[in-house]
Amino acid sequence: MRNLGSWATELEIYVCADLLQVDIYTYSNKRWLKFSKLQILHDESSSNEGIYINHANQVHYEVVLNVESCNTNSDNDVQSQGKVFNKDIDCDNDIPLKPDETEFKDPGKQKCRKRKRRGNNWTSRKKYTYITQLDTDKIMDKQKSEYDRYWTFIRNEDAVRSDKGAMYRENNRRFKYKYNKDYRFKQILKSRRNMNYRLKNEYANIGDKLKHKYRFCQIFKDNLIKKNKERYRLNNDYREKLKKYEIMKYKSNSMYRDHLKSVSSQKYETNEEFKDYVKNQSKYKYETNEEFKTSLKDQSKYKYETNEEFKTSLKDQSKYKYKTNKQFQSDVKSRSQIKYRTDKNHRDVIKKQNKERKEIKRIEMSKIDIVINDFKKEKKNGPEYICCVCHRLLFNNQVTCCNEKLYKSAKVKQIASECISKKYLYDCSNTCQNGCAHPENWKSLWICFTCDRKIKSGKKPQESMTNNLDPGPIVDELKALNSLETHLVSLHIPFMKMVNLSKFKQHKVSGATVCVPSNITKTTSMLPRIENDTQLLRIKLKRRKTQKGYYQYQYISKKKMKDALHYLKHNNKYYSDIEFNDDWVDISNIDEVLEGDNSVLKELASNHSDYEIDELPDIDEKDDNLSNMDEKDDLPDIDAEEEKLNGPELATCLQPLDIVSETLDNHFDSIFSISPAEGNSPIRILTDETNEAKCFPTLFPNGSATYHDNHEERITLSRYLHCRLMNADNRFAQNTDYIFYSQYISELSQIISNMSIALRKGKSGLNNLNNITSDMLTTKEPLKNIFRNDEGYKFMTPIRGTPPYWQSTQKGLFAMLRQLGIPSFFSTFSYSETRGGYVIECILKQQGDNRKACDLDWAEKCEILRSNPITTARMFDHRFHYFLKNVIMSDAEPIGKVIDYFYRLEFQARGTPHAHCLFWIENSPKIDEDKDEDVVDFIDKYISSELPDKDHDPELHEIVNSVQRHSYKHTKSCKKNKTVCRFNFPRPPSKQSFICRSIDNYDTNIPEQDENENGDNTCNNDKITQNTAKSLLEALWKALSDEEKNYTSIDELYNDLGMTQELFQKACEVLSKKNNVILKRNPKDVWINPYNPNLLRAWDANMDIQYVFDAYSCIVYIVSYISKSEREMGLVLSDAQEEAKGGNLTAKESLKKISSTYLHCREVSAQESAYRVCNLRLRESSRKVQFIPTGENNVRLTLPLKLLQKKSKEKVLSDEDMFMTSITDRYKARPKTEQFNNMCLATFCSEYRVMSKSERINENSEKNPAYKLQKDLGYIIKRTRSKPAVIRYARFSSTKEPEKYYLSTLQLFLPHRIDKQLKPIGFETYEAFYKSGSVKICKKN
Hints:
Elements: H1 10-20, E1 23-28, E2 31-35, E3 50-56, E4 60-63, E5 68-71, H2 77-88, E6 101-105, E7 109-113, E8 124-127, H3 133-142, H4 144-155, H5 157-163, H6 166-181, H7 183-216, H8 218-234, H9 236-252, H10 254-270, H11 272-288, H12 290-306, H13 308-324, H14 326-342, H15 344-365, H16 368-378, E9 385-386, E10 393-394, E11 399-401, H17 410-419, E12 446-448, H18 449-456, H19 476-479, H20 483-488, E13 492-500, E14 507-517, H21 520-526, E15 536-541, E16 552-557, H22 558-571, H23 590-593, H24 638-645, H25 659-665, E17 671-674, H26 691-695, H27 717-725, H28 736-758, E18 761-763, H29 774-778, H30 780-787, H31 803-820, E19 825-829, H32 838-846, H33 858-867, H34 869-888, E20 898-907, E21 913-921, H35 932-942, H36 954-964, E22 994-996, E23 1010-1011, E24 1017-1018, H37 1026-1041, H38 1050-1057, H39 1061-1071, E25 1076-1078, H40 1093-1099, E26 1103-1107, H41 1111-1122, H42 1127-1142, H43 1147-1159, E27 1163-1165, H44 1166-1173, E28 1179-1181, E29 1185-1188, E30 1195-1197, H45 1201-1209, H46 1223-1228, H47 1234-1237, H48 1241-1247, E31 1248-1250, E32 1267-1268, ...
Parallel strand pairs: 1-3, 15-17, 29-34
Antiparallel strand pairs: 1-2, 3-4, 5-8, 6-7, 9-10, 11-12, 13-14, 14-27, 15-16, 18-30, 19-21, 19-26, 20-21, 20-28, 22-25, 23-24, 31-33, 32-33
Organism: Patella caerulea
Domain DUF6570: 458-585
Domain Helitron helicase-like: 722-918
């Protein structure tokens, strides 16, 4: 019984009987065999009691509970009978004794009768003692420990032998002794061996029968399998034994091993449940069992090296997993980075692979179809990735998979555990029956690169929600409020003038934002009692009750307002002391509440010249810090505020669009006007720390987590607003009032900061600077004289979107034109939010809505786009930037090889952005430098104005027909400047493209054309007059505008008008005022705007592209677009500046006057506000523009006033010490090496940049080392990510200001370290040194 499923040998049964000290009787092959406990040692007397077992089915033993047998009458016969029984009827006997009768009775009694035999004294019958199952269990339990110890010895016989165990030696000694001394025992043992040999074939036949039955009897097979499975499931011992047996068999039996492998492989491929189980078991074993892990790695490596098919398959799987699994991608990158830094061979291999990969990618992306398809896939992606730390919605290139295992140090781990949140880790459950509405990316944990970098550096990110930035959830009581109800329950009401724009009805704000405290008790008292909770009231919110205009007009629910106020009172810290009327009625005011007069809606009269800014503090020269400003100067002009808030000037886009409906409303008595802010003065937005929470209680339900609350890590206002508007819950992005409020306080904060900086600007080189004393720095009047540098409104240049900002951009563009030459193409790309539906579906996904854009009507699409201007603006920014980098500048070169570019964004009348771009194309032909034929061929190659054939290219045909076709009915925009169409549609058709040059000197005495016999106009000369040319083109224009005529070809059109191609070209040249190009067009294409086929196919929205002819037209064209949207604002600011100068105001007062004018005259759409607040790109170019101050007495920025006063007291203040370090100071402090000794200022500024303090400084880098400047002025590094910068400097006339001109030239292009080297001794002027001086360059060894 050492092997499972095998018979116990007789020797083992004898040993068992001796161990248990009980006789064992076995019934097999119709015989009883007795195995006496006295057979080995005769120490005790034998008895009739014993264990009776039946050898059932030739495979196992069953206990017999009842046995009857023949026996002698004497008591001693039992022992002798046992001996005779063993001798005569033992199975090893050659002539076994068969009983006369054998009967098995159910339920468990067995009667065995034996026949008498001659020579034996069997004359009577005796009943054997019953051994019940209970008795057997008692015996087995009693001797269980000895039994287990014995079988353990038997199974581990080899081990016991090796250990020379005492038990084995004792049993072996007894066995040998009995075998040698007891002849009878020796004979019995030999006979049993012979019998076992004879029965071997019988047992084999029985096994064959069972196998045959198992194979061909399905019922037997199923029952056996079921029984074994049940036993395997319930019996732990059996399960463990079977596992060990299977493992041993798997290792030793190769046929069984191969069979099991084939069966498992087949089951793995067909059974998904088994497949998942195997995978999970393997993963668990791989993670927990190091031996298995090592073995599997070795096997995989060997298989990878020897099996090419496996190698290829593994590579493909890894590539697919790398693309689809961000977690796997992050792990691979981290391991590769570590290996790249430590293993030089691996580093060389990676470099080689990267070169090969880039080359393959370059070849692949040189195919325009692949480029277009790649862009079409990318433009569908919106901000669908949520950072688990700052909870911002980001694009896929802004995040990486969050792997907490990468944060190794204890401090970093602690910060990561505090900051990382799984709030937006969405688990798709069974509730998503009709498809999950949330983006697929929400099922993984992501982190933005900013937060990841800060956590790894051991710092908590400023934008982390754990930095007291989590405003808490919005409860249902607050979610149910509409816009007017929200204002009525607010402690402060943000008044702002908003209007609706065209098409999508997007919102635009005009003027400043004014926050006024509201009286909630007054609001609740003025509203009348309602009959039931479902009743709605029509309410007009006014600044003053006497005004006929209103701020908002909507229906409200008193029940919703009451529930909201009850929640705020118990949960918002600013509402704890608010008392309101539970009955919501004040009978004494009912007559005043009801509108009895028929007020008429008035138009907004936007006259802001008398409205002073309420937030500009008096920047006292005693302190430059904003926190210590004089609060007296921060008080607003209350009279001016009330004057501007009076009347309908603060009416908003929430007014009804139908003025007839408004007039009819005045005849109903159920309209109530309330003015909860009447009599209250506006608050100071930046200094009132509670204003944000009081203005927007629905966004801050608990009144906490605002900008002015305490934060563990200091966060700037810009970062705070950026984080708020990009938050994943979209509560801030969907609130237009908060967007405009954020943009206003952001610009207000920047204006105050830049005013402070502007007042610190002074000029170096003044004669009185060396005589500054501490008394002068602490007295107001001397300070005014020292720092007076009135720049007008230039101090607003750093503020994005202001007129000075765009004027600075314009100057930078002029510098690019001077240094890079004339650009090749000017193009415009508009935004179509509804085409494709990607923007709409992205917004719906963020809201948990799985509807498709194609299932929505126009009104629903417009409402969705208005609901989230932040996402709409961000998707255009991402789409255009990807289009620029990966389509226009790709190796496919759809418009040629772009070497430089510039673009700026402009916001159309409907509030959406569109981009104006300039492109410099390599080796593009230039007008007047190359042949006209080359220029025309270049234009025809990249610009088209034809409508593609519908059958040949249906996709491009649909796009051109939808977005490039001008309307047949001219709009108001077309009729500006008193023209029929200022865009010159329909455009004239032409058989070929040609350059139309203006003819200034034409002969006015040329005779007029005569009519021939057919009535056609003919020209008798090569030249024609202007009148003739004009009449020809007017006739052509009328023919094209006639809807009844449908010309199929140009020849048909020309024949109808009596024209030729040559005559048409001459007429165009006569009337042309400047050089331009007439594109090839058919009559059916006269309404098509020029486009590039490849760019339009990818962009899928309106575009325009033109060839730039000369510098004059280019500059005029660019200037008109650059300043188009800011021209009026610039004029207003100029008037304000002149008024300030005429009023003899100080510099500070002038800046305050200009700032106030700007803030109250600005007009910003919702999407433009999103661009400004979220720091999206309003302009960009391939080269940075670096301004270099040249000349004498340059304007420089002084040190803060406190530092100046400290240096003055210490008597260490000098001319140079007063000012901040400039770029010229760093140039003079450049390293004294051969590389920098002969470098001029222009080259230094163009090719090198100053490193910031946060950058990693590596002076030993092989690729691009950092260089330390002298005098501890920082570090510089060469520009490698971009091309050399374009330098901009003050330009002087060589004739009017020769000294300034030559000084500027020498400063820029003559290497020097001190100013004296620009005019050495012996030269009186810079002009003399420039013209007659000489410089010797010395090289140091």
